[in-house]
Task: inverse folding
């Protein structure tokens, strides 16, 4: 947990952590409540927490630093964009950001958001604004320390590659290098950029970047060529890490599959659910 870095820890387990299990509430029926008599002991135990009530925070009355700590511990797990970029004069930059997500597959877009201090903008956002190119590299367990090292608050135009121990791999369509150690990398061109200011303020506190993915590089040993289109990635072999609260990283542990409901198959059951007053 965040804030317990001095507590004794077990050695890291190098064995792949991911495995498939059954879903948490395998006997759940359409419309069945998740309460004390819910569809599983887990759901029933969770429902006991309702008795404790909710603590509500009105964001306009809270300090940004306090909101940051609360939000990064509750919005989890967050995927990490390990961004490689170049400054206008060609200095490489490499840094991890967990305000990151897939936006669209048509066109293929990713979003990366950068927060700024009152005195300095993030180097990566400056570079992307100026050169309009970058790569996003997914971080895996075997080299996470090198990626974390790149989160240091080094002066502008410091080349993080040197201290990271990581290797540059030439990109195909953009100038910034991709990370050779990454088994899943994306070459991106700037699609759009939006500076962010608090309501009623002209101060720029963040920048949201949408990147148009021009190429995706998948290492063959993590790629599943199942004959369906261009295949998919094996989560067991990718060993991707995520960000949690504080200095905590997460690894992919277990997964379960729940098919998406098809309306034509469930609409009759929905019609049988008693309407709430």
Result:
């Amino acid at each position: 947990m965040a804030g317990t870095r001095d507590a004794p820890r077990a050695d890291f387990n190098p064995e792949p952590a991911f495995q498939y299990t059954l879903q948490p509430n395998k006997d759940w029926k359409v419309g069945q409540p998740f309460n004390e008599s819910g569809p599983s002991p887990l759901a029933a135990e969770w429902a006991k927490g309702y008795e404790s009530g909710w603590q509500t925070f009105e964001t306009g009355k809270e300090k940004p630093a306090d909101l940051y700590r609360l939000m990064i511990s509750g919005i989890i797990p967050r995927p990490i964009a390990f961004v490689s970029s170049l400054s206008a004069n060609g200095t490489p930059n490499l840094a991890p950001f967990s305000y990151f997500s897939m936006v669209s597959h048509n066109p293929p877009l990713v979003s990366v958001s950068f927060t700024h201090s009152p005195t300095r903008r993030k180097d990566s956002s400056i570079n992307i604004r100026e050169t309009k190119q970058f790569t996003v590299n997914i971080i895996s367990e075997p080299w996470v320390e090198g990626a974390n090292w790149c989160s240091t608050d080094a002066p502008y135009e410091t080349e993080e590659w040197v201290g990271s121990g990581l290797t540059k791999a030439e990109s195909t369509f953009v100038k910034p290098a991709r990370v050779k150690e990454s088994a899943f990398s994306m070459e991106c061109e700037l699609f759009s950029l939006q500076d962010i200011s608090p309501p009623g303020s002209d101060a720029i506190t963040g920048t949201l970047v949408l990147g148009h993915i021009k190429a995706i590089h998948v290492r063959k040993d993590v790629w599943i060529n199942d004959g369906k289109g261009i295949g998919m990635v094996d989560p067991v072999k990718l060993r991707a890490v995520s960000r949690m609260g504080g200095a905590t990283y997460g690894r992919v542990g277990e997964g379960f599959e729940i098919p998406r409901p098809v309306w034509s198959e469930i609409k009759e059951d929905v019609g049988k659910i008693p309407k709430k007053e």
Notes: Residues 60-271 form a domain with the Pnp Oxidase; Chain A fold (CATH 2.30.110.10). Helices lie at 41-47, 64-74, 123-131, 144-149, 161-164, 235-238, 263-271.
